[in-house]
Structure formats: structure tokens, C-alpha cells
Write a structure and sequence with these properties.
By secondary structure, this protein is mainly alpha-helical. The protein has 13 helices and no strands.
């Protein structure tokens, strides 16, 4: 065996050793990673199991305490008062029973998969949380019952004191009402006329309710005692409000009388101004508002005569406002008419210029001008004619603006038709350069009298003249 063979054998052995070592290291690393993952999973499952066990212990202890508390409350307050809490405790116990069953499956001799251990532990925690919510409801319910037991005697005692105080105010309210009857009309006192009687009925009900509350307390009917005490408290509050309304009425009536005096003086001044308007201006709504305000003022009681200041103030104020609105509307309409009259002249002049330009195109070229342009021209002439004869300046101005715009549009459409005829283009009306156009006019020939450039200049000039519309308002206004 020569040296070369020896070197090859040694090299092969080295390569084999290296490969074997690499494979062994890789396998060891995989085993270590798998063991680490398994250990991590086991640690998580152990943590979930501990959490589930702790939740079970805590919730079971709370359930046992709740059972003891509920039994004590039944003995103290009676089964009738606590009957709504028993189903809540039963639901908590049902959830705990399911949780204990799952925990038993986790710890029996039957092996469980990792997925089952994770799922059941999480389910145990959820069941304990739900049972804990029911136990919280029981705690709140028992606390509310005990609070009612403690608070109801205090409520009854407080209502008794308020009841005596409000009863003493009833005669004073009756006396105030009698005095007010000498100052105001009976219809004005209708909102408070029965208040003392209603207050007495409420106070009588409150007295019976407090007596019922005391009786229920002696028989441990806590909820019913609390309800009776609260009803008595509400009745006393409403009775006091009714008596206060009698006292407040006079103050409101005095404020209404003061406001009525001011608005009467204002109304008389506005009536004088309205009557001073020309008859044609007053005709219609202003005259009607004047009559209504005069009627409202005439219906006011004479000095010293009992009346209804609140109702009188409302009627006079409404009539006064109606007259103000009528006068303001007329003033606004007059202002619009004045502005329209001032703008009508320039608008008519512009419309006539636009009509002249449009007629020139149609008259000079005739046949090539299609029906659209001719229709716009006819409508423009109709609108301008209406603007000349309309009695209302606003309508006349709007018609003039529409006529000017229609005439400008007619000129534009006519020029388009002429351009198409000159180019021999087939168009919607059926014109062809070799055929006869609208009205028998042959394409390519111009009628005598005015050149095409002159006509185009007239059209363009008419459209430029329409620029004066910018000085008298937006052309879009004519469509308002």
C-alpha cells in the first residue's frame, strides 16, 4: 500500500468521523429542544391546574359563606323577603358542580391529553368566574335588604316630620287662593284652583303609607315596608310642590302684568305706524294683522277688573308678532321690487341686443340653421315680449334675463349649424354637402348680402355685449 492510498483512507475516516459527530450533535440538539418544549408545556399545564384549583377553593368557600348569609337573612327578614336570592345561589352551585366534575376528570386514573388538560382547566376557571358573579349578586341583594331594614325607620320618621310641616301650609295656600280670586278671573286660576285639595289628598295617602311601613317593619316585611315609606315620601314631595305652585302663581302673574303693560304700549305705537301706510300697501296681510292686534287689545279687561294676565300677554304678543312679520314681509317685497325695477331697463336692452344678433344669423343664413337654434330664438322673443308687458318688475326682470340667455344660445347653435353646413359634414338634421340642406339651401353657397365673417362678427358681438349681465347680477339668477 503506497502513501497515496494511506492518505485517502485516513481522509475518508476523518470525513466519516466528522459526519457522524455532526449528526450526533444535531440529534442531541433536537432532543434537548423537544425536552425543553415538553418541559415548558408541562409547566404551563401545571400553572393552569394550580389556577383552576385555587379558583375552585375560593369560589366554594364563597358559596358556603353565601349559604350561611342567606340562611341568616331568611331567619332575620323572612323567607318572603329573600326568596329572589335562592335561585341565584342555586345557579352558582350548579356551575361549581360542573367545575368539580371536570377537576375530578383531571385527577382520576384515566390519562388525559395535553389538549384536554388545557381545555378543562380553562373551563374550570370560567365556571368559577361565572359562579362568582352570581355570588356577587347575592351579596348585593343581602346588602340592599339590610340597608332597607336600617333606612326604613329613618325614612318613616323623616316623612312624619315633613308631613306635619306640609299640612300646616295648606290653610295658608287656601287663603292665598281666595285672595287671588279677588284679583284675577276664575279662568286665570284654573291651573292652581284645586291644588290645596289635591295636596290634602296626597298628604292623607302619605299618612296611611307611613303607618303601613311601620306595620311591615314589625312583621319583618322589609321590602314592602321600604316601598310604603318611599311612596309616602313621594306623596309629601308632590303635595309640597302643589302648594308652592299657588304661592308662585302670584309672582308669575305680576311679571306677566308688567310685561303686558310694556307690550301694549309697543303695540299701540306699531298700530299707529301701520295705519299710516298707504292703503294699497296695507291691503292684505297687514290689514288683517292690524285688525287682529286691535281685537286683542280690545279684549283686555278694564283697569281694576279681574282678568287673566298670562293669557292676555300671550294673545297680545302673538298678534303683535304677526303685525311685525306682515310689515317686514311687505318691506322686503318692496325692496325687491325697487331693485328689480332699477335693473329691468339694462336687462331689456341687453336682451334686445342678443335678439338682434341671433336674428341676424338666422336671417342671413336661413336654411343651414337648424330647429334647435330657431326654437331658442322663438322662446327668447316670447320671453322678451313678456318682459315688456309684465306688471311685476321682478317677473319682468327674470323674463328679460331668460330671453337674453336664450337668444345668446340661439346664436351659438345657429353658428354651429352654419359651420357644419360649410364643411359638408352630415349632421343630425340630415344635411349633406351634396344634398339640399334645411329649406332647400344648397351646401357651399352663401346668400348674398353679408359675408360669413360679418355674420360671425355679429354673433360674437352679440355674445360679448351680453357681458354687461355681469354688471347687473349672475345670469343664473334668471332661472330662480
Amino acid at each position: 500500500m503506497d502513501a497515496g492510498q494511506i492518505v485517502g483512507i485516513v481522509t475518508g475516516l476523518v470525513v466519516v468521523v466528522v459526519l457522524v459527530t455532526a449528526v450526533a450533535v444535531w440529534a442531541a440538539r433536537r432532543r434537548n429542544a423537544a425536552r425543553a418544549r415538553a418541559a415548558e408545556l408541562e409547566a404551563e399545564l401545571q400553572r393552569l391546574g394550580v389556577e383552576a384549583g385555587s379558583a375552585l377553593v375560593r369560589t366554594d368557600e364563597r358559596a358556603r359563606l353565601a349559604e350561611d348569609e342567606l340562611a341568616f337573612a331568611v331567619a332575620e327578614l323572612g323567607e318572603r323577603e329573600t326568596r329572589e336570592l335562592a335561585p341565584t345561589l342555586r345557579r352558582a352551585r350548579e356551575r361549581l358542580a360542573e367545575a368539580f366534575h371536570l377537576n375530578q376528570r383531571l385527577h382520576d386514573e384515566v390519562p388525559d391529553t395535553d389538549a384536554e388538560r388545557r381545555e378543562w382547566s380553562a373551563r374550570i376557571v370560567d365556571l368559577c368566574r361565572s359562579a362568582g358573579g352570581s355570588l356577587d349578586d347575592i351579596d348585593r341583594g343581602l346588602a340592599g335588604l339590610r340597608q332597607t331594614v336600617r333606612a326604613t325607620p329613618d325614612v318613616v320618621a323623616r316623612v312624619d316630620g315633613e308631613l306635619a310641616r306640609v299640612r300646616e301650609a295648606v290653610p295658608a295656600a287656601r287663603a292665598d287662593l281666595e285672595r287671588l280670586r279677588g284679583q284675577y278671573a276664575e279662568r286665570a286660576l284654573l291651573p292652581v284652583a284645586d291644588n290645596p285639595d289635591q295636596a290634602e289628598r296626597l298628604l292623607e295617602f302619605a299618612g296611611r303609607s307611613t303607618a303601613a311601613a311601620r306595620k311591615r317593619l314589625t312583621t319583618q316585611q322589609v321590602a314592602e315596608a321600604g316601598a310604603a315609606a318611599r311612596a309616602a315620601e313621594e306623596a309629601v314631595r308632590r303635595a309640597e310642590g302643589l302648594l308652592r305652585a299657588v304661592d308662585d302663581y302670584e309672582a308669575e302673574a305680576l311679571r306677566a302684568e308688567a310685561a303686558l303693560g310694556a307690550i301694549v304700549a309697543e303695540s299701540r305705537a306699531e298700530l299707529a305706524q301701520a295705519r299710516a301706510l298707504p292703503a294699497n300697501v296695507r291691503a292684505g296681510r297687514i290689514d288683517g294683522a292690524v285688525d287682529a292686534l286691535e281685537a286683542a287689545l280690545a279684549s283686555l279687561p278694564a283697569p281694576g277688573e279681574p282678568g287673566d294676565p298670562l293669557d292676555a300677554l300671550t294673545r297680545v304678543r302673538e298678534a303683535n308678532t304677526a303685525l311685525d312679520d306682515a310689515v317686514a314681509e311687505r318691506a322686503e317685497r318692496d325692496e325687491r321690487t325697487r331693485k328689480a325695477a332699477a335693473r329691468l331697463g339694462p336687462a331689456l336692452d341687453d336682451a334686445e341686443r342678443q335678439l338682434t344678433a341671433a336674428r341676424s344669423v338666422v336671417d342671413d343664413y336661413r336654411a343651414p340653421v337648424g330647429p334647435d337654434a330657431r326654437t331658442r330664438l322663438a322662446e327668447a322673443e316670447r320671453e322678451v315680449a313678456q318682459a315688456r308687458t309684465a306688471a311685476d318688475p321682478e317677473r319682468a326682470f327674470a323674463a328679460a334675463r331668460r330671453g337674453a340667455a336664450l337668444a345668446a344660445e340661439a346664436a351659438t347653435l345657429a353658428h354651429r349649424d352654419i359651420a357644419r353646413a360649410g364643411s359638408g359634414q352630415r349632421w343630425d338634421g340630415g344635411y349633406n354637402g351634396g344634398d339640399r340642406g334645411y329649406g332647400g339651401w344648397e351646401g357651399g353657397r352663401r346668400p348674398a348680402g353679408r359675408s360669413g365673417s360679418d355674420v360671425f362678427g355679429a354673433v360674437l358681438g352679440g355674445m360679448v355685449l351680453g357681458g354687461i349681465l355681469d354688471d347687473i347680477g349672475d345670469i343664473g339668477d334668471m332661472f330662480d
